[in-house]
Design brief:
145 residues, 4-stranded antiparallel beta sheet, 3 helices, 9 strands, 23% helix
Length: 145
């Protein structure tokens, strides 16, 4: 069986690691299917061993495994469907936030939903991570070791 290909960042979570401070966990898509958490070590990404078939299961396992390290998702804003059908919005993933903030007017087409969407109210932390990862070329694929 061949090694799965590591794809784009789907979401990001934050950990409090004793004696090291805050660290980020990156949820990346694996090709052909699945999602895996990687620990960001200032440019290199270390696999955590958590691989699941869906984003929800990956988060559930992340909360379970890293509960002693205050596992918490980075707030990437709220996604709204267009035309204005969704008044409350849903929690946006980091990849959805990136797609919205990278477009000229904030609107992008989500193939899975079949609607135009936009994201607003992303945290400054998420926006800074977006800028830094884009500058380093790490949004689509991780850095090579």
């Amino acid at each position: 069986m061949e090694e799965p290909k590591i794809g784009q960042i789907i979401d990001i979570a934050k950990l409090d690691v004793p004696f090291e401070g805050n660290k980020y966990l990156l949820l990346r898509r694996l090709e052909p299917k699945g999602f895996a958490w990687f620990l960001d070590n200032g440019g290199s990404e270390v696999p955590t061993g958590i691989v699941r078939d869906t984003i929800a299961l990956a988060f559930q396992e992340g909360f379970s495994k890293f509960k002693m390290n205050s596992f918490r998702p980075v707030l990437s804003g709220f996604r709204y469907l267009l035309p204005e059908r969704d008044e409350h919005g849903e929690r946006a993933t980091f990849s959805e936030m990136c797609r919205s903030y990278a477009s000229s007017n904030g609107i992008y087409f989500d193939e899975a939903l079949g609607h135009n969407c936009y994201v607003q109210n992303a945290s400054l932390e998420a926006l800074n991570l977006f800028r830094n990862f884009k500058k380093a070329g790490r949004l689509e694929t991780p850095l090579k070791k």
